[in-house]
Amino acid sequence: xxxxxxxxxxxxxxGLIIVAVATHTIWLNAIAGYLVVEDEPDFSDVIVVLxxxxxxxxxxxxxxxxxxxxxxxxxxxMENELPGLVATWPQLAMKHAVSMGVPEGAFILEERSTSTYxxxxxxxxxxxxxxxxxxxxxxxxxxxxxxxxxxxxxFEDQEDISLKFSPAEESDFETRKWWTREGDMINxxxxxxKLVLYFFKYII
Length: 204
Fold this sequence. Notes:
Layout: H1 2-22, H2 24-33, E1 46-49, H3 56-66, E2 72-76, E3 79-82, E4 85-88, H4 89-99, E5 107-110, H5 116-130, E6 134-139, H6 144-154, E7 162-167, H7 182-203
Parallel strand pairs: 1-2, 1-6, 2-5, 6-7
Antiparallel strand pairs: 3-4
């Protein structure tokens, strides 16, 4: 009887392994897909671009601005050192957007934040100061789940403020077969670890 139970247990485990291997593409893609959050953008008071990555976040904001989704753009970030140049990420982002036709007067540079949590905290301060009641929040696709969790937490006492979340459209990030690309693999693993950390540090 003991050997029979052991054999059945072995078959169950073997079956689970076979199913996991056969369906690995589905559940691995789902792990990355969970990170991506996207709302249909509404016409808003301001577009918020979170600092980091390459120009795709800024370029997405410029596209929405040119479609008249908002009259203002807040760019977050901090000092960013480049060879021969010391500038903040918001300054560099604004310069790039201006080169694409956005007037410099449309920008609010939020240069105090050093994390996604501080992005949300300081953006909230800026929006309340300006009287903004709606915003489109832009970041990289893999970052959006954490962005939405944090921003909703920070803004939970502002029921009259509407937030929409819009990932950069031209990002190189792909949810399919991300485990075959080093950059995407780092981003996916890093984001899931940070989701757990942020949950215990800020949410509960």
